[in-house]
């Protein structure tokens, strides 16, 4: 019996068995790199697992390959802030890939307080024939050296190494909720509840505060920052969303501190629909630029909205997500599920958007008058269950095809295993 269990663990099928899942194994974020060849996942245990896509089979050239484990490393460890008597979790909040410049890959990972830059590289050769140390790495006695040797590189089994290159810390008082790499590929920003900091990838001991909404009196605090993202093409432009359901577009050329926004996007609330839960469900949990940079997509608890940067008064499109939950908000409030955060994502052509378990196709063809063509909703993905809540989304940027989406869901139903995580990849 024990032998069978060991065999099951060895062939990795235990990853799909919820009986072996622990709290630390629950995936907290996922992110494809720009080509879709690599997929990075972060979990509550502070680990980052990078999957690599297999090459297409010669027998089935049109079949998409599977993703297998490429590298695994411990990104963050639990810490304790002795000044504030605060325990800092190791959970990975966000992962962002940097554009590939050479044979190595680089990614940013963050927990609540610290951002780290990691280098992932392959090594299939090892140096041999050192003069000052032996093959075991021990220093040799210089008096025993009678001749000089030229070191050579010998083939070895392929080894993937993950090396921390930069650690960006001690800049956030509150929990980091998002990071975004700039299109200049030299800077990135990290965002917490009240501030946004701008970092240079080569400088770890200094950052610039570009947004600060902290009031002099914390009792006057009315909203917090929930997400922020750089424009995909304009390195001076970024947006951030708030818990009040508003989005602010800022231009860093205007001032060093972007307290005054360039554009303000907010949909007026219908007084007839206002309730006790209105402010909670209107909080924006995610904001994403389209790849063209023309549109914004925002996600709140029950809707996904697409905004045109040239029209601030109302969203261009609004999609209802899980509308049946409107009648169950009271129960969701009692079990705290109403505070769950959800993400949204574009595919590589900006034609599809994914939110929760509904994929929407949007025709982005523009007519000569500049108006969007009709939209068509596709129910390509059914819900797993009404007791299932999608909390992580990732999109492969593929400009020639539709996207691959990876979803992870935490089951909150009492009939299912507690804290179990389920992942599935979809092609469409």
From TrEMBL:
Keywords: Repeat, WD repeat. One of its GO terms (cellular component) is protein phosphatase type 2A complex. It comes from the Eukaryota. PROSITE patterns: PR55_1 (PS01024), PR55_2 (PS01025). GO terms for molecular function: protein phosphatase regulator activity. The keyword Repeat applies. InterPro entries: PP2A_PR55 (IPR000009), PP2A_PR55_CS (IPR018067), WD40/YVTN_repeat-like_dom_sf (IPR015943), WD40_repeat_dom_sf (IPR036322), WD40_rpt (IPR001680). Belongs to the phosphatase 2A regulatory subunit B family. PANTHER family: PROTEIN PHOSPHATASE PP2A REGULATORY SUBUNIT B. This is Serine/threonine-protein phosphatase 2A 55 kDa regulatory subunit B. It comes from Pygocentrus nattereri (Red-bellied piranha).
